[in-house]
Amino acid sequence: MNNKLYTQFVGSCSLVLFAFLGYVVKFYPVWIQPFDQVITNGVRSLYPTWNPFFLWITKFANPSTIVVLFLALLFVLIYGKRYAEAAWFSLGVIGIAGIFNPLIKLLFMRERPTLEHLVTEHSYSFPSGHSTASMVLYGTLIFFVALFIQNTYLKRGVQVLLGIWIVLIGMSRIYLGVHFPSDIVGGFSLGLGWLLLTYPYYQKQRFVWRFKNKQL
């Protein structure tokens, strides 16, 4: 119970952070400019040496890549009769990353940075779709690692690498000039809030599926 309350508390804080950022971006954008400027200057200090690296990294959260990875993992989960996992995974990727994020952009209508864009983007800036999608997809994988890897050290290692991967994808969007840092934090907090608030319900549904299978 304590773990459930802690998880949901952190998830709630993540959504509160998202709501706060959204409010500031919509009504008081000047407040957040110093934060955006400092982080952007730090990340862009690597320009242009790291162009190939960040152009490669960002592709792992492009819509086409997300769709391919989603379908591949969904097939693995359904083939393994992990229906609770498949349902939770689908709700996150389709519902939050695929539908909610693009729609919520229309509420804030934040224009993208005026820096040189190293990739072409046509939608609004807040929250970052790449950040939300990477947090939801690769963040879900962090939880699922335990299903496929039993060795504790290997499991933790893979989870840490996935966490670093998510952060690098967020950094790539700043480096490429298509997002403000607050867009990245907003996308991350939205995705993390979803994962942590719904994780206990996924666990409960997983238990129900296991119980039914044992009865059969």
TrEMBL record:
Signal sequence annotation: none
Entry keyword Ion transport: no
Transmembrane stretches, start-end: 5-25, 53-79, 86-108, 128-148, 160-178, 184-202
Transmembrane is among the record's keywords: yes
Top-rank lineage group of the source organism: Bacteria
A Pfam family this chain is assigned to: PAP2
Keywords in alphabetical order: Membrane, Transmembrane, Transmembrane helix
Domain Phosphatidic acid phosphatase type 2/haloperoxidase: 91-199
PANTHER family: AT30094P, SPHINGOSINE-1-PHOSPHATE PHOSPHOHYDROLASE
Protein name according to UniProt: Phosphatidic acid phosphatase type 2/haloperoxidase domain-containing protein
Species whose genome carries this gene: Enterococcus saccharolyticus subsp. saccharolyticus ATCC 43076
